[in-house]
Write a structure and sequence with these properties.
The chain is of the alpha/beta class and 297 residues long. The chain is 45% helix and 17% strand. The radius of gyration is 18 Å and the shape is globular.
Amino acid sequence: MDLSPPVVIRKKRHSPLMRWRIERATSRAMAKETAYRREFDAFRQSLQGTLSSTDGSTVLLAACNELYYWEFARTFLRSIEAIGSPERFHLHLCEPSPEALADIEALASSLSTVELTFTYDDGAFAKLPAYPTIYYAAVRFLVAPLILSATRSSVLCLDVDGIARAPVSPAFEAIAGEEDVRLIKRPGEKSVRRVLASALAIRPSEAGIRFADRLGRAIAAILSMHPRYHVDQIAIVRIVEAMEAKGELSTAQMPLSFADHEFGEDSAIWTAKSWQRKNSEAFVHAKGAVNGAFDNS
């Protein structure tokens, strides 16, 4: 069981050469449906576990390694269960221990309002980038097209270090329109920071499915290039902007209440983006309240 703290990436940018390779990869994934299919299929074939196979309400999707499973994922799932509104949740585990697999199986059986499915991998893909955290952050966008294909339901990709404060999928479905993708855009930011990947929803429209497929193939390819910094945000930005420019994709703004770093009382999800926020009094107290209610039940 690996519960070592995450490695801090000191150099928070890609080299000019890697940026050029990422640009080329996203362009090729856009231009040709078979581009990087082999890399993506290698990931798909490595998965174990179960995907939901029925259509219906929005599927919440998150991913984590062993440390984040014990520290955050269980709390997130418990917080959703405590609210009492029916939800569908898929969790992808990165190289889980037998203890984690046994725990999530028991958790899935114990939840009454959350329909929990999970997949897992053996850790091989986490070794492709220079730092495993690069893979941990990006892997949900590899799983998303598989869920879209299996369920033909909307998929809401979320950070796993969250606490639900309100029914999540009803709150999302109340604002959902005909857009293909809903994401947090930050027009005032430069480069990859123009999008915050903490909450991103994809509808099972033709364009939404095409976007998810392109994003998954591009990320699979970029991971094989052994990047030294995060790849999910830059791939999202490049593909969204390219598809929008061609009129192939409609997008809408995701409210920050689905990834609230400031812990507002009216938000759907509190998301602890940094370790400073994870250790903040408000988040620690909320986390303790959720787990305490379950531990004492």
